[in-house]
Structure formats: structure tokens, C-alpha cells
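User: Show me sequence and structure for the first protein, then do the same for the second.

Assistant: Starting with the first protein.
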Amino acid sequence: VDDGKVTLTGTTVTNTQLTNLIDTSEVKDQYGKVISETPSVQISKLTETDVVDGWNYTGSQVENLSTADTFKVTFKYAGGYSISLEVVMQ
């Protein structure tokens, strides 16, 4: 992860793969306490380069991705905290 952007390969990306991109020791609340809960994952702003296949988000993974597709993943925590990353497929 570099400045909120990450490049991944493949045609399918799971929520687990996305969550593993976060350094959990760096996810802290306003008091500096590490947030140890598992976040919910939200996918948005997907831009496709190959509309023939058509991407699909099943709730646990994004499927049918192509090279240069991009999307935003937001990790939401119960305390109202969130982290967002821009993902670019290679």
C-alpha cells in the first residue's frame, strides 16, 4: 500500500485478501488504542476496462476483474472509523 493505493493481480479479489492489506497495528481510535475488530468491507467506484465480462461483488469477493480495472475499498469499523484504499488491477 502506497499513499492509499495498491496494485493487485488476478481476476478475483476476496475480502480476506483486501483486509490483509491493512497493517492492523496502525488502525487506532482517537485515543491511540488499536482497533482489533474485523471491519466490514464496502466496494465502490469500480471502473471497468473490459465491460464484456462484467464485474460482480458477491459480498465476499470481487469477480471478473480485468487489467487496469480500479475500485475503492472501504473498511468500516463499528466505532465509526473507516479506512479507504484505491485498488488497481494489473
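Switching to the second protein now.
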Amino acid sequence: EKRTKEFAFKIKNIYYSIPFIIQDLKSINQVNPSISISKIKIDFSELYIYCQKNKYNNSLKEMRSILEKNKDYLINNTDSESIKFTIELLEQIRKEMLNSNKISEFIKL
């Protein structure tokens, strides 16, 4: 029960933070699109682990694939990417979160 609530809080934090970050990045992109982003202040590691554990859910499988492809950037914070790429990536992750029934359950808690 306690672990579930803690995890739900982390999922909600990711889910509700993404639109604000996208909005900020779009504003920055209008002023200076050549800036590279090296760290996003969202902890995707818990979401990645959850996606790994739920291998048979298609939405989570797609999200895991996105997170794996961009692991150095999103989880390890060792790469940097363009603002446009970051916006597209965050939009993809949020879309998959919306499509996942399991994630939706945590957001509703």
C-alpha cells in the first residue's frame, strides 16, 4: 500500500510536470532554438523500471522502448539534445502515459 502510493506520487509527478516543461521549452525555443538541453528535472528511472517489469503491456512496452533509446539523455543525464527533440520526446512519453491503462490507474489514485 505505502509503496503503491509512493510510486503513484512519482508517476503523477512525471505526468503533470511534462506539460509545464514542454511549455517552458517552447518559449525558450522561440528565443534561441540553438540551445541544447543536457538535463531534464524529471526522474524517469522509476517509470523505466516499472515498464521493464510489465513487459506485456503494449503502451508500457512502447514507453520502455522510448526510454531505452534515450536512456543516456533522460535517465543517466550524460547526453544533450536540441530543444525541438526534447519537446518531441516528452510529448511521446506523455502520449504513451495517456494510452496506458496501468499508468492511468496510478494517476487517478
